[in-house]
Amino acid sequence: MRIAVVGAGAFGEKHIDGLKNIPHAEVAVVVSNSLDSAQKVADKFGITEASDNYDAVLQRDDIDAVILATPTQMHASQAIAAMKAGKHVQVEIPVADSWADAQEVLRVQQETGKVCMVGHTRRFNPSHQWVKNKIDAGEFNVLAMDVETFFFRRKNINAKGEPRSWTDHLLWHHAAHSVDIFQYMTGAKVVKANILQGPKHPELGISLDQSIQLKTDKGQILTLALSFNNDGPLGTFFRYIGDTGTYIARYDDLVNGKEEPVDVSGVAVSMNGIELQDREFIAAITEGREPNSSVAGVLDCYRVLGELAASLEEQDGWS
């Protein structure tokens, strides 16, 4: 499986690092709009080729699939171009920054029949998989979830603390993780969605603080707080409140409500959620099946995000 990794930033490197542990998967080329950036990443990981021409790479017969770790605003168009060129594609979260574009990605996937997987990594982190296994075994049911997504990003920087050429977004990117895992874990459909946000940053043009409430058709609720103003512990922390216990997931670590560690080392072949995500992508292509977190499987998340975005537009009209 010869793969083009598109994007030479923090997540492009995370995918390359995960792919090196997967049999029958080879990163053939690193692609970036900057050839110098692509070459630096290729040299770092011993990859023989770098390119600054995404369209040319899509035309190559020796490339089977692409992984898109590019700016959010490019995800939908680049995923569509890959599938139309006959390539399987994994696109980092979010698949799009509008409900209409997310639907178009699904339409093209259905038209081409190619694997299109979205990087909803929480489905693959061993901590969340452990909770999902208990749900599937009938040993735990989610009653409510409280989630905190906290970063300190008053400047336009990426996960490595380097300057970024595009602006991240709390709703379409970071909230997507929580909206999706909430519906995935409850097996329910969100029927009520509320959002409030703070003032927009004068330079970044986005709000740095948001509060979201969701309710499913089964009655479960999600309370989600997001901030780029948090000067403290960074990351996303998920509290699962259920009928038989409480669990708190912090990336690949899990504790119960009393902060006692839960051993998740035996859940999967790796403790690296990105690697497990990439393993599912390769397996789905090889086995000719739909992957977990396929664009069809995560689409309802983007319906909810679209409703929340529309609500914010209405609120802006009231101000």
Structure in words:
The chain has 319 residues and is α/β, with parallel strands linked by helices. It folds into 2 domains: 141 residues, Rossmann fold (3-Layer(aba) Sandwich); 143 residues, Dihydrodipicolinate Reductase, domain 2, CATH 3.30.360. Helices cover 37% and strands 24% of the residues. The protein has 9 helices and 13 strands. It has a 7-stranded mixed sheet with strand order 8-9-10-7-11-12-13. Strands 3-2-1-4-5-6 form a 6-stranded parallel sheet, sandwiched between helices. Helix 1 crosses helix 8 and helix 5 packs antiparallel against helix 9.
| Count of helical stretches | 9
The structural class is alpha/beta
Runs in which pLDDT lies below 50 for 5 or more consecutive residues are none
Euclidean distance between termini CA atoms: 52 Å
Shape estimate? globular
What are the key terms here?
seven-stranded mixed β-sheet, 319 residues, Dihydrodipicolinate Reductase, domain 2, Rossmann fold, 2 domains
